[in-house]
Amino acid sequence: MKGLSILLTTCLLAVMGLVTAVCSGAEQPAAAEPEKLFEATCSQCHPLSRPKGLRKAPLAWKDTVMKMKNVNGAKFTDEEAEIIINYLSEKYHLPL
Ligand code: HEC
């Protein structure tokens, strides 16, 4: 009987560990890594130096990112576009 409950406890702990691992793995949405999202999305057609060499106001970054999607055929969701626009607007803004 004792052996069985130890076995059960071990199983329970293993399952809990697995659930924790799966859950913590799942909470890594793109939103948590704007830089990685930007790098992966915007390096597909031209080097990252293309946007990185520029400084734009937030609305101009929005225009640029939406142009990549609507004119040049870049593939990303509106949600991802917003994350990238916010990232670029914060990091590559016009001198203050
Ligand atoms: C599907 C291919 C493709 C992807 C993906 C792409 N671009 Fe472009 N990009 C282009 C092409 C083609 C040009 C040159 C023509 C033009 O200016 O629109 C360009 C030009 C640019 C320019 C210079 C022109 C300007 O308007 O300032 C910037 C900045 C730029 N891209 C930023 C980005 C950013 C930021 C991303 C990620 C959201 C991105 N690109 C993703 C194809 C792409």
Strand content: under 5%
In the CATH hierarchy, the third-tier topology of the largest domain is known as: Cytochrome Bc1 Complex, Chain D, domain 2
Q: What is the top-level CATH class of the largest domain? A: Mainly Alpha
- How many strand elements? 0
Structural class: mainly alpha
Average pLDDT reading: 83
The bound ligands are:
heme C
Topology:
Blueprint: H1 2-26, H2 34-42, H3 49-52, H4 58-70, H5 78-91
Helix pairs in contact: 2-5, 4-5
The structure holds heme C.
3D architecture notes:
This protein folds into two domains: 1-29; 33-96, Cytochrome c-like domain (Cytochrome Bc1 Complex, Chain D, domain 2, Orthogonal Bundle), CATH 1.10.760.10. Helix 4 packs antiparallel against helix 5. The chain has five helices and no strands. The protein has helices spanning 2-26, 34-42, 49-52, 58-70, 78-91. The chain is mainly α. The chain binds heme C. Heme C (HEC) binds at residues 41-42, 44-46, 50-51, 54, 64-65, 67-68, 71-74, 84.
In a nutshell, what does this entry contain?
The protein has 96 residues and is an all-alpha fold.
Quick tags:
single chain; binds heme C; 5 helices; 2 domains; 96 residues; mainly alpha
